[in-house]
Structures
1.
Amino acid sequence: MDSLPRPQRPAPPLPAPLRPPPGPPPGPDTGEVLQQIMAITDQSLEEAQARKHALSCHRMKPALFSVLCEIKEKTVLSIHGVQEEGPPSAQLMRLDNMLLAEGVSRPERRGRGGSAAATSTATPGGCPNDNSLEHSDYRAKLSQIRQIYHSELEKYEQACREFTTHVTNLLREQSRMRPVSPKEIERMVGVIHGKFNAIQMQLKQSTCEAVMTLRSRFLDARRKRRNFSKQATEVLNEYFYSHLSNPYPSEEAKEELARKGGITVSQVSNWFGNKRIRYKKNMGKFQEEATIYTTKMAVDTTKVGGLGSQASCPSTPSSGSSGPFPLTSAGDALITLQTLTSLRPAPAGGGLRSQARGGWQGAAPPVSTASPAGDLSSVNSDASN
DNA sequence: TTTGATGATTCGTA
DNA sequence: TACGAATCATCAAA
């Protein structure tokens, strides 16, 4: 604390040049007083208190004090001010931002969406309800981390406050015996805060690591496959089999399918990707499924009588309006029924995508060539597109 | 436990 | 960038 050099104890008698000039000594000389001051810390508390009191009352004390002040003024400036606290480091700011983004820094909110991370994360997997468990688990663990973080932070802050108060009091107390300027106390408080900030940074770093670990585990968990709901599968299959000649839903169609099935657009894309490739690989296997859906479509078409499956199937650029006849989707479906059993590679000129990839015409027979119901192709917008 | 089904991911391609 | 193809990982029924 004190920057003044302290001699080894027991303090040797001061050399002659430092001794006060000879004169009528009213009591112990200055050297003796200084020696007593230096020896105070070696004594027992009671003894020291008594001596301290005696020294405080000594008539030479003000003079000694002013000498100490003078010496300190000369030395303190050169010693202090060297290690000023710099601005918060980039690392600390990064940690703060991260904790804020993860919802750890903020106080916990009640109700749904306890954290930004949990609320902002989409819930792929088909069944949002299934994920709620993982979600609540994630939120619970994040909440646990948040609690520990805040509790530790509070502890550190309290310890910091207590220690600061203690040191401040100590310095104020010492200021009665030696010159301690308010600025010096302030600087000391700054040093203490700096030390505690370092500890806080470690705490923040550990918290960040914990959140990252939790997050990665959560993301891994999301990777787990969940079967789509029956409704989602039906919606997707209906679209697929009703647009068999061109099972490439537009973005709008995907969005609508996603909405209807309660899944994400990305999952719709995945599903169609898988479906196309699997259908193409083993069309025989899907015949029964195709029959089921095409029959369903046909029934729906009959029931609705004109609007047909368009009511249940999202529109697609390739399956646009085909006029007043409900043949757009049902047409495909009927064609599917008739052609599934006699599948054979078709000549070029299939659907839209088949032109681009050369893949689909081999799977979904072009209506104009493979379908006995060739007439339908003329009104099937899928084929015509 | 095995096996088929299926959603997700990755990589190459046009 | 969307798609096909291969593959992985998991689910669920047998």
2.
Amino acid sequence: MFAEVIVDVAAYPIDRPFDYSVPEMFQTIIESGSRVKVPFGNRQVLGFVTALKSDTDVPLDKQKPIGELLDIEPVLTEEMLAMTKWLKRHTLCYEIDALQVMLPSALRAKYEKILRIVDSNAELPQSVQALFQGKDSVELKADESKELLSTIKKLIKDQILVLETAIKQKTAVKKVRMVQIEADVNRLKEIHENVSNQAKKQKDVIKWMIDHAGERIILADVIKNLQTSNAVLQGVLEKGAATLELEEVYRDPYADRTIDVSKKHSLTDEQHLALSEIIHSYDQHEAATFLLHGITGSGKTEVYLQAIERSLKDQKEAIVLVPEISLTPQMTNRFKERFGSLVAVLHSGLSTGEKYDEWRKIKRGEVKVVVGARSAIFAPFQNIGLIILDEEHEGTYKQDDSPRYHARDVAIWRSEYHHCPVILGSATPSLESYARAKKGNYSLLTLSKRPREQALPEVSVIDMREQLKNGNRSMFSLELADAIRLRLEKGEQMVLFLNRRGHSSFVLCRDCGTVVECPNCDISMTYHRHQERIKCHYCGEESQVPNSCPQCSSEHIRFFGTGTQKVEEEIARFFPTARVLRMDVDTTRKKGSHEHILKQFGDGKADILLGTQMIAKGLDFPNITLVGVLSADTTLHLADFRAAEKTFQLLTQVSGRAGRHDKKGEVVVQTYTPDHYAIQFAKYHDFISFYNQEMMNRKQFAYPPFTFVVLIQITHEDVLMTAEYAHKAANWLRENLSNTAEIIGPTASSISRVQNRYRYQCLIKYKKEPMLPDVLQQLIRIYRTDWLKKGILMSIDLNPSSIM
DNA sequence: AGCACGCCGACT
DNA sequence: GTCGGCGTGCTC
């Protein structure tokens, strides 16, 4: 018996199955989808069994046996193995990358180099003895000194030491120590009798145990509740009154929370219609995709909940994706309220162990609904009834490193596999999805009304050029300042939005015009006042704020551009009574801090919530009556064909935060380009007109959805090398693709250097290019066999979410 | 000769 | 990706 194994080595010639013989002892239990340890070259690596067979073409002298079978129950299902092949072809990634992305990181291997003494009689040099500290094996870390490493090398050659690779699972199943109390009361009484009266504490414990015979209690709880000590308990255990056992437990990220149960809401006519279409398709076991276009506050979530309820009735499972779940506890709570313990939650805020535990609950079928961010689309359910992508237009559904998959595509693939519907929900659908819905590839469902008929908020667009002309140089227009003041007087809450964190976006010398740039990246450093430092938002480089210009030594350096920190100060200056909460990457780094800030705001502990994009989504507080967008222009002028779409989406999303309940909402949008159609259509909440206008632009410039786009990026430490190989790539594409494919570039990327690597890119635009996968595959081969050695890095992104 | 360093090929 | 093997070229 032989197993085809994909080994955990991401390299070009390795990206195929290797055949291993299956030792007798594993033959009855091994299955495809299991993880194995295999010898590979002169080391041990982790691998995934992708197939089993009785014969192999591998010559006898090359056949090696599987070393260890790591899973009795395979971690990958047949579906996942099929999905892997598809992902590999559609994102051009290594098969091992596609396999690993389906699993929680706890199941990935951690490799350790173990140095062991084989010849214990040999005399070891002082430095090596210090390393071993009397033990016969130690972990060899890569950061040891060069001299030590070369001495070790010599000792290995002389067969005094050996180097071994150990494979460790990153995180284990959590076990808790349980006290299993003897079930036989008479036996306990007997033990109680025999304990000497000197051991009073032990006697007390045993006496208590007589009343709890046969019970199984967490050790830590026993000690705590009986006010006793571990030493006393050990004594009791020795006498046989109880035994110690390990029990598997789940880490529970929601342990300290009580969640109320909620009933279903009654539906509006529109909601009802949408739901019945979805359920109809569900009953037919159709792999249909629905685009649920519902204005903000129109009750999309209630439609999701009731559709899931339907699938739960049949014991089927549901996957719900949300953009980045830790940002919207309000959303997860709604699912927990409705479905209780049937819900698993997966998001980046969980620890490796917590994610692993949620994953196991899903795999074992202990939960039926998973609510999670992008990677939750790979949830190991076996009988899916429904898949939902909320805010389907969000860029976070596209992974921006290998495998560069889009969760929407995976969702549709899985829906075909399980013959179940997919719901894509959004107030501002992506142009791609809306175009597909109009063409009939997706079914369009519309929610145009809010359930309690609340009006959409009034949006006023303020021309900041006029403000400047009239002598208002502050960041608040008169209109916005008035609106804020009014809310403060009335005790209502507001959200202020600015898409830029930090204090000032650049530091400029007023004598020579020098802008302080990151030493590693071609981008200006952002000033952070709290730590009094400047930071690069791309590579994380930090340094002291210079006292003088690094170029001309002038002391006339000033801070320009506005970030959230500066707004916070300005609010304090203009509205001294206002209580402000700032929410951006800098204030939410700690685990649970999102929730903490939102809870404070929800409890009315602040008047103003000030933040970056992360406050645009999902917030639902009844007392918010004003949303202020301090500068609508930041996303508008990006060098990306989706800039207008992103701006429209963002404005619509933030506007939707105001007046969701009984109180009427107002939105003030400040901009230097008030006439731009993205801003104008957002003012009137008019998605359809925006769509039509934007589609005309896309058509004119041949961008998606009229074409498909592939982004190829080349990076190298040397500019000339980068440009040279970018040209090679572009030329090669021009020679090999049909002349209906347009190849743009190569051009320097808009941030031309990041982390000391120069970046060039080219863009392929095509309508129909049947040879494209092959041509790209060949380009990858040239790259991996030749260019990679010269230090060139190339990435290919099919349907990129941004071309910057 | 002894070794550091870089390049190449193999890995079932 | 990571190892060993091998050639080159430097140093004692």
3.
Amino acid sequence: MTRSAANENASPWLPAEDREKARDQKMEAVQDMALTLFIEQGYHHVTMNEVAERLNVTKPALYNYFRSKEDILYSCWMSGHERLQQRISAELGAGGSGLSRLRRLVRVYAETMTTTYGKSLVLLDERDMDDMNRRTILARKRDLDGVFRALIAEGVADGSIRPTDPRMTAFAIAGALNWIGHWHRADGPMTPEEIGEDFALRLTAGLEGKAPIVSE
Amino acid sequence: MTRSAANENASPWLPAEDREKARDQKMEAVQDMALTLFIEQGYHHVTMNEVAERLNVTKPALYNYFRSKEDILYSCWMSGHERLQQRISAELGAGGSGLSRLRRLVRVYAETMTTTYGKSLVLLDERDMDDMNRRTILARKRDLDGVFRALIAEGVADGSIRPTDPRMTAFAIAGALNWIGHWHRADGPMTPEEIGEDFALRLTAGLEGKAPIVSE
DNA sequence: TATGGATATTACCCATGGGTAATCAAAAGT
DNA sequence: ACTTTTGATTACCCATGGGTAATATCCATA
């Protein structure tokens, strides 16, 4: 009542925008809640009923915003990827040696992995999606792997990283980073920035120098 | 026919043993087949019907060997853990510096991660199990983490590993190792031994020396 | 105050798949 | 030869949970 009174004489075009914005916000709320539950309990243990209940609506209401449960899953992954990609692009824009760029990639990747959307990249399973969506996810995962390998190769080429196999190096680094999604808890002892800083150095500490790694 | 002829005059007590052995083999066959499918498709996409079909039996036959689908899942994880634990114990029996023992742990862990049972430790989800089994799994995972941390702390204490936080170091190393379960394919370019050797050096390359890692 | 579009609810459908009951066949024990 | 045990089959049950149809409500607009 107070709300309608405040808007009583407002332009009649504004509410239309508001309604659209409200719709987007609701869609996002559905996605956020679903993702939180997916991460907590695992996709298959979360029911559409539970997602709805937690949002104080009933199940069919959700289908105003997503066509299916799988559609939400796919959206979650894609949103996570978009956010990560955004931060990577912003971070890698500036130049520097291959090693220093790799360090920045590791830092921002690690930080992102501590967020719910970052974790979605690791904790949601593309096998729960249909063929088309799964193919998209796999392509993006390959791209991400390519970024690591390219940066490592770049560092080897410019001499900032000792000669090493980009494929295995990328696997090792990406593995350590992705694992963050499994062990990180929001109430843990380190902030995302501290984790990022730690990993940025830790995961590249063995890459400096000129000589290749060999068994002694 | 040839088979029965060969055993015609054998002791009547032997078949009893044979039957027990046959039973164990069948139980193992069920577990192996289920695990293979779990790894390939994900637990929730594998039906008991499919497991049975692939073994040329019908679904109820499986329930002669396991009480439930979840029981198979738990058994798979535990078998994987047992095999890993076995190899770790055998490997860490001999002495050496903390660093060299950590290297041996990494090597044997990486090798194990390329096997179906090794992958089960990472690709099967304890959230699909009931409370009791889940608690057991989580306890064993904590133990495993403890082995890494203890070895790292040992190396720092004896001077073979530069001062570093055992917790984060263990997370980084275990992450890289566990990730093998996600990317490894049996038809890949490297043998398990080569992967083990590579990782043993790669994941410990940054740990040598005396000075702690600091941002330059 | 009437209209229509958007959004929510109630009540329902139904495919899926884990698990079981009744039964049967074959081998083991006596 | 007979009975019992083991292990497999056929046929079925039924809880779960994603998704939908019909309907109601709200609200801006005319």
4.
Amino acid sequence: MIKSSRPLSRLTTPTFEMEFFSPETRPFDRNKAIHELLLGRKLANQLKAALIKSTGDDDARELVTGIFNSFSNTLSMLNSAESDEVSRFPASTHLGSPCFDGRKSEDSVESCKPSRLKSRRGCYKRRRTSQSRTIDSPALVDDGHAWRKYGQKVILKSKYSRNYFRCTHKYEQGCQAIKHVQRIDDEPPLYRTTYYGHHTCKPLLKPSEVVLDVIESESSKLLSFTNHFPTKNGGHGSFLHQHQSLSPDFLLPSELSAYDHGDVISGVASSCTTSSHSFGMDIMVEMESVKFEDDVLQFPEFS
DNA sequence: CAGATTTGACCTCA
DNA sequence: TGAGGTCAAATCTG
């Protein structure tokens, strides 16, 4: 049988890629952006210190503090693609629905529906007042997770359609994380990503491994771990904000120079803690704040 | 051919 | 009742 050609409507409908990856809005270099933000924050902090010393002007100090916090918040957004601030579905959602069984079982859905049309009745519930976390960004940010698009919808009074994504591992591992992405502005381009649920899927690498990425510049060095790693209390480590309060006792010796972009470090981050920002996300930590002992990453401030 | 995307239909809820 | 969220068949892609 000859396959029917693609309907005209599909040809005329802008694809997600066309809509989101126009030349002026192609994905940006996330690491560079993070580095620039860190640099900005550092400079704001220096300015604040200088102001305190010289003028003591409260207004100026407040302004600089605001700038500093703004940098921190943006960094936090970039790093916590998935945080535990991210929503939970209501207990009844999906898990409580008659058809939820972690699916992949397209068959299992089948099992709970006598006929195709009736089948969907009651098989899913709309999220209601579940918490969510929204990030606005000038470009699409790769949050390090594998997403699969499952829908697209024209939104009333909105120029751009909303795109719906679920975790690729939804059916294999029952991961309930989803996100909605919508372009909300033209000039400058602005994308709103709303995350619901959190990733419960396992990382791609072995739990004892993290991929190290070294971001380097004249003023500072950063380590970026592009995978999860386990913590003492069974969670996953994260280093949002905390590295601001590091003890200088742990200034990094030469060990780190032995590691380079993309290195895989075997071992366990033995002493990091989970915080309100603590799972399933990329981890950025200032180079000076970690050290290696017997190839084990040490995060002293959490010991 | 398996996995991803598209898109119309269906469903829930305000 | 209709806007928005999800499903799933059809289609595409690597």
